[in-house]
Amino acid sequence: MPLTLYVVAEQGALGSAISSQRTTADLEKIADDIEPIWAQADVVFDPLLIREIQMPTEVLQELVLTGGFEEFFAQAGRTFEVPDAGMINGFYLREAFEFNGFTPNGSLVFFVADEPTVLDERVSSHEIGHILGLAHDPNDPTRLMFSGTNGTVLTEAEQQRARATALEILGQTSDSSLPVTIENNGGSLEGHTPRGFAGMGSGLFAGDNLNSGFPNDDGVQAWLTFDLPTGPDTPTSAVLSTDSLVEQGSPFDDLGNLMVEPVQYEEFSADLFDLEAAGEASICEPLGDGRMECDVTDSVAAASAAGQQRVQFRLKFDRVGDGDGSQDLALFFLTDSNTNEPGIFHLELS
Ligand SMILES: [Zn+2]
To answer: Model-level pTM?
Structure first.
């Protein structure tokens, strides 16, 4: 499971009296040394990252002098950034109050002092033990969860418990955990392309007769991009939806079904019009009140299984035009019809 270890220094005062004296090389060594201890339970730390972090003086003082971590949690991500956070994060402090190390209850964070009274790898492994659901053992000093010794033994029961907790944490906090709803990326990979006119625009439109300057029957297609969550989970259901459909004219009556097709493109351009689809099309259902849903399970599952980082879709009606000379458009927007932005569409993965 992902683990990141941090050498903690005082912000703007490297080498100060409350900055850790450790180096990233010291943490590399600790990382190497905890590996065999946790191998007992088949827990592997990957990716394992070593970073330096600077914290505001007040936050660091609280941690060092009183073991007060509330301010740390309150300020993390606000007054200081925690780079490359793992699932478990270890912070190496000049001092950790009177402790060798400590783990705030129920958190995935531990703190370790510069000069613990026991081996470095033992302190770090012991704190990780708490994070993985293990309690102290009062009887056997050879065990990892006995307090204040260099014991490293994990019993069979502890190994099982730690593994189970690790899997639980992976499921709960992983990027890939389902269900999840993601928004269209709203960037330069989205917009519309009309037929028979070397143009494009950022508004999300599908239909016919974009405006009076366009030749009759020159349909328009909308293009969407979603960044997929990373991770091993392949969704068994994917629904593309919006609450922002506005109809201009009568596109659903005149142009047939609105179809969604998976597509793949690197750059959004006028050339995309009628780009060959990368998979089967499916029908989008307008449900009233601006709501529309399309089942895109097959294409998203295929993209996810293939490790693709994004999925892209084209929306187009069955018929490019109906020859009636008037506008028949489905427009999708939140405020300004000529813009795409995140949140116009959602992709619900479960
Ligand atoms: Zn403990």
So the answer is: 0.53
